[in-house]
Design goal:
alpha+beta, 8-stranded antiparallel β-sheet, 20 strands, globular
Length: about 350
């Protein structure tokens, strides 16, 4: 599970910014956390406030390790730049093991520092083009713009020396979705597309969810394609003629099931793009109730989901832009009462992160 992510001088975040997923109040919504770590996170704020940039820090991590071509790391230097480098630090709890991974990259596309710690032990250490694994020197001429971890995952011998299979498997299972663009970033090889999932897993998991939640849909899959049956229909209708909301729901369920099965992170940018208010709430509650150590990280412009029966206050951050770059505000810092309407409090401006249009 992701415990914390720290951004410094990264994209729109000039100042050191910590996104913390630790539990603060253990007495409410116990289904929303495990091992004192939150199962989910919601980022709200106006357009171009920097919400997506927080999740880009996670996308950068897996792209830099697993993408076929090496990505230009220097492009992520802060646009409100005051330093010649940026730094990203990630803290994870995987099973019973804690991991800390840190990278520092300068404007010349040089990796100044890269470390991986397992518990209190530094198992990977890199400064510019030299590196060691478990305190044993391994490299003296590393490419300055390529993560050492990228080389390790491709080299069975180095991977064996590092001896962090749970950590590497966890990173490999992270899934990022842009709901608006309808794109998925994943390097796991797991069946994440609906048709592929149905071919391998069948229709039962999806139909069981639909039936249990009184959603009048039944999915049918055959060599002829994917069809939807409703009680009002005389016969099944091809999925391609269904609404974008129905199509988005079925695709999302596949991603939910994958996260549950792998106890992995599912990141969705612009979560509320296709769903009715009640369906939004149902899906969020379903994820937190079903997940063991899986996590759901969301950005959304839908203030409808700002409800205290869906999210713990410490699960929500507002993101807003100032002259010094993007800033965040954790809702748990605000003394709200249970009787108050969280959505109205947010729209009043008390929790930051609203656009000028919202203030009118």
């Amino acid at each position: 599970m992701l415990k914390q992510i720290t951004l410094t001088n990264f994209l729109s975040f000039r100042d050191k910014t910590i996104i913390d997923l630790s539990v603060l109040n253990k007495n409410i919504l116990k289904q929303n956390y495990n091992k004192n770590i939150l199962k989910g996170l919601l980022l709200v704020g106006g357009n171009s406030s920097g919400k997506t940039n927080i999740f880009r820090a996670l996308k950068l991590l897996i792209d830099a390790i697993y993408k076929k071509v090496t990505i230009p790391l220097k492009e992520y230097l802060c646009v409100f730049n005051t330093k010649s480098f940026y730094e990203l630090e990630y803290d994870f709890l995987i099973g019973s093991e804690s991991y800390n991974y840190l990278i520092r990259v300068n404007e010349k596309n040089e990796i100044l520092k890269e470390t991986l710690s397992k518990g209190s032990d530094i198992i990977l250490s890199r400064a510019k083009n030299t590196a060691s694994i478990n305190n044993e020197p391994t490299e003296e001429d590393l490419p300055l713009g390529e993560l050492y971890l990228r080389k390790i995952v491709k080299d069975p011998s180095l991977k064996k020396d590092l001896n962090a299979p749970k950590f590497l498997a966890f990173l490999n299972n992270i899934v990022l979705v842009s709901a608006r663009k309808d794109t998925i970033t994943s390097y796991s090889g797991n069946p994440l597309e609906l048709k592929e999932y149905l071919r391998i897993k069948g229709v039962k998991p999806i139909n069981d969810f639909l039936s249990a939640n009184n959603i009048d849909l039944q999915i049918i899959y055959s060599d002829e394609g994917i069809f939807i049956k409703k009680t009002v229909n005389a016969k099944p209708v091809s999925l391609k003629y269904e609404s974008t909301g129905v199509q988005a729901l079925l695709r999302l369920l596949v991603l939910f099931f994958n996260a549950f099965a792998n106890n992995s992170i599912l990141i969705i940018d612009e979560f509320s793009s296709n769903f009715h208010n009640q369906l939004e709430e149902l899906l969020i509650e379903y994820f937190f109730n079903q997940a063991s150590s899986a996590q759901l990280l969301l950005t959304s412009h839908s203030t409808n989901i700002l409800k205290m029966h869906l999210f713990k206050m410490e699960q929500i951050y507002s993101v807003y832009l100032t002259g010094a770059g993007s800033q965040v505000y954790r809702f748990s810092n605000y003394p709200i009462r249970e009787s108050q309407n969280l959505e109205k409090v947010y729209l009043s401006g008390a929790l930051n992160g609203i656009s000028n249009l919202d203030k009118k």
